[in-house]
Input
Amino acid sequence: IPVKFSAVFEIADTDGAYSFAWNDEGDQLFSSDDVKIGLDDVKNKKGRIVFLSFPSNYTGVAERLISAGFNKSGVLPNYYEDGIHDEHFTFTI
Output
């Protein structure tokens, strides 16, 4: 499933916690350069942590995020439907 980042935003009611808006309308999965651009933007905004979550059936997303330095931080089992979980990732700045 192709995933493209579309924005970086501070999470409401937090102090320096950010996330990336994304959609699955792109031609391909985001690249490590795309992740770096987002993380650099968070650093420039003096952010302290980034939270992302994706459906578990989005092939390649977890591997790409982990290779960029994110940690897998949790799972909401069967969140979307039976067998498709919501996987959570964090990156501490």
About this structure: Residues 32-44 form the longest helix (13 residues). The CA atoms of residues 71 and 90 lie 5 Å apart. The chain has a mean pLDDT of 95.
